[in-house]
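Quick one: structure for this chain?
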Amino acid sequence: MTARDPGLPAPDGDDAATLGASLAAAFARSDALFALIPEAALFDRPIALRHPLIFYVGHLPAFAWNQIGRGVLGRGALDDRLDVLFARGIDPASADEARAASVADWPPLAEVLAYRDEARARVIALVPEVIARPDDVLCARGRVVHLAIEHELMHHETLLYMLQEGASRPIARPADAPPLAEGDGRAADPRRIEAGEVVLGIDLDAIPFAWDIEVGRAVAQVPAFTIDSLPVRNRDWLDFLDGPGAPRRDRLRPQAWLPTREGIDVKTVLGPVPIGLAAGWPVQVTGEQARAYCAAHGGRLPTEAELRHAAHGEPGGGVRAYPWGSCAPEPRHGCFGLRQWTPVPVGSHPEGASAWGVEELVGNGWEWTSTPFGPLPGFTPYARTYPGYSADFFDGDHDVVFGASWATDEKLLRSTFRNWYRRDYPHVFSSFRVARDGAAGPRPA
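Got it. Here's what it folds into:
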């Protein structure tokens, strides 16, 4: 491979049967996650900047119907009131904006569930009709079905970090949840990354599906730099707060930390745990907080292009599909795919290291970058049913996050996938590491 080869993995099938089965599987996982929530808690609002949980029960099927049935295929309204009520979530800059966007009365659960079941049945039945219209850009290769599937999978992660924040009503422990992965993890070492060329973006027809923000092409010449081999841990953040370089301690306390009489607990989806057990997990902080840590340690956040080069580049100029190579993601490569239900100590997956010896670039936490979220050259909001998917966030307040978290589905681990959050948003399953100008670290083996 060359630096101009995106090194993409083999595509999934895009026939009607395969897409219908994938859509049904995404629906089933949604049901499994919602089943963990006590029914009385579905009208709770764990995060003030998001709608109550009941919104997401209706939003996922409404989105699928609005994209496929009402949108691409022109079948009209399923339920005009609910189609609109559940059409889009919110991303307000403040709690005041969130209150202004709030709905006073949500429909009863039985009504939402009946709407969900009807929307799902109709959407799955329409998948063959989507495939039968290859001249439509959203029907070709089943793109609009892929869109609905990936939207569903991304919202599983949204739901989980809302549940983490709602610790007053713990969810039922999933039957497949493994024992808590505890320990200090490993301390980071500097890794030298040689200069190289990075290509961001992909042609729409190169893979079965890409979001509009992935489409385009930007060629970046990345100078040599040094980056930490592993993300910053909870224990590292504790040391930072106690050190002389930490300004405004109150602003630097992670939202995921819960002060107790005994000390500090760390919030998880399964309930808070003492920080001693989570000392080696990546610390979950905002992009602004991550910047403060990097500055105090003589460094900075890496750019999106630098993380892409550290993850997918090779010393000889080649490009890998994944940091570890070309084989499909497996549990030995990282903490992703909703197998663990919490982060794990950093350094737990050395087999996932990149060609430069940088570990954990995929999984355990979305990595903050210093790159403001924006379009690539050639960007076009080609999905006419969802033109604001990314364009609504080209505002300078959102930054690109890289990689994946422990809750990210494997379908989203492709090298071209781009994600973003407000840089002051504290709830995302995040991580970060320190980068420095120049190649001061050891050369790759």
